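Researcher: I'd like a candidate sequence for this fold, 338 residues long. If you have to choose between options at a position, lean toward the conservative one.
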């Protein structure tokens, strides 16, 4: 059974991926520093899968701690989620973002080399495409000019991986560019549980739906889109998790460096998502129109044919599924995961 090191494996996407790995016969080894996740997630992974993965509390920038993980466990592959990821916060705290998001991946790569690990999946983001002109976005689109330090750390990490792959052709590296992850595990045990006031749209809507927040601010209804609000590619987190398993299988066939968009290929506006959430759950979401948010683009959605052609993967769940699962998670965890 292959041991997969999952850096940041108790986070929103990490924990769902750990569940998918277990269900696919892998043995995940979870490292998380709990800076943006809860230890209770480990119990919930065990409840869902019947297996309690090995867990080590550590920060991926801590070379000595991570070296111990590699020494004490035979690692066959790595999925690297561990990063700070709040766009707005990254503008206020660039030093922390560059330091954490680059050191954590560089430390992991150094230890991969030292311990002879060859398969590495990097959690990238649609923000690497910056303010792209044409939609949908393809993997060979220009990347760079991200609109914030968070996005820049993803651009830089991708550049590092391209150079590492050139220097070490024996490595198999997958760069996965996510669009907007939403939804939750159907059991309601795992879901998006941000600290403080949510930056992202779906957790904000979910908290309004149970009265934890009074009203949703729609940031701008004057974009050049059909209903004037921002359009994104919202992908169910379960689909995203399966995408990681499919990518790991691809690496095991000695793929070298591969890059995939993980999205649905469809754009959904803010107003459309609000309506889908209301219709799916029979709730009303009060909204108020506010000015545009700095750094936002009008549209951002993917073409995902490459992942289907090369991984046999495509998103199966719909926006309605995600709205239902998010609401179910929020109702069962009104104050988040405790
Ligand atoms: C979506 C749409 C907002 C909140 C970011 C990161 C991306 C990824 C996902 C990590 C936009 C509008 C939002 C609100 C609103 N994160 N909105 N009111 O900015 O597309 O992507 O999160 O990988 O990398 O860039 O996601 O959910 O913040 O915004 O109207 O309270 O919802 O203007 O049009 P975004 P988002």
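Model: Candidate sequence:
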């Amino acid at each position: 059974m292959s041991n997969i090191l999952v850096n940041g494996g108790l986070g929103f996407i990490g924990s769902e991926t750990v569940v998918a790995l277990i269900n696919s016969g892998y043995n995940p080894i979870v490292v998380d520093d709990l800076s943006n996740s809860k230890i209770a997630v480990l119990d919930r992974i065990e409840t869902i899968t019947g297996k309690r993965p090995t867990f080590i509390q550590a920060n991926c920038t801590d070379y000595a701690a991570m070296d111990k993980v590699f020494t004490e466990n035979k690692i066959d592959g790595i999925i690297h989620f561990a990063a700070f990821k709040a766009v707005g916060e990254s503008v206020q705290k660039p030093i922390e973002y560059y330091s954490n998001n680059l050191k954590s991946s560089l430390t992991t790569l150094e230890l991969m080399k030292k311990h002879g690990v060859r398969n590495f999946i990097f959690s990238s983001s649609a923000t690497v495409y910056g303010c792209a002109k044409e939609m949908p976005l393809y993997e060979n689109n220009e990347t760079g000019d991200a609109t914030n330090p968070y996005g820049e750390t993803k651009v830089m990490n991708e550049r590092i991986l391209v150079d590492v792959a050139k220097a070490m052709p024996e490595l198999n590296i997958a760069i996965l560019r996510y669009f907007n992850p939403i939804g939750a595990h159907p059991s309601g045990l795992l879901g998006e549980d941000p600290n403080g006031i949510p930056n992202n749209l779906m957790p904000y809507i979910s908290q309004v739906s149970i009265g934890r927040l009074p009203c949703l601010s729609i940031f701008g209804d004057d974009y050049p889109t059909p209903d004037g609000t921002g359009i994104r590619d919202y992908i169910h987190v379960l689909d995203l998790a399966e995408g990681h398993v499919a990518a790991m299988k691809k690496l095991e066939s000695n793929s070298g460096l591969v890059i995939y968009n993980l999205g649905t290929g469809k754009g959904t506006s803010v107003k459309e998502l609000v309506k889908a959430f209301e219709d799916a759950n029979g709730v009303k979401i009060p909204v108020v129109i506010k000015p545009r948010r700095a750094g936002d683009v009008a549209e951002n959605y993917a073409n995902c044919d490459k992942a289907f052609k090369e991984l046999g993967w495509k998103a199966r769940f719909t926006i309605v599924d995600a709205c239902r699962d998010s609401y179910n998670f929020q109702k069962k965890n009104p104050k988040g995961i405790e």
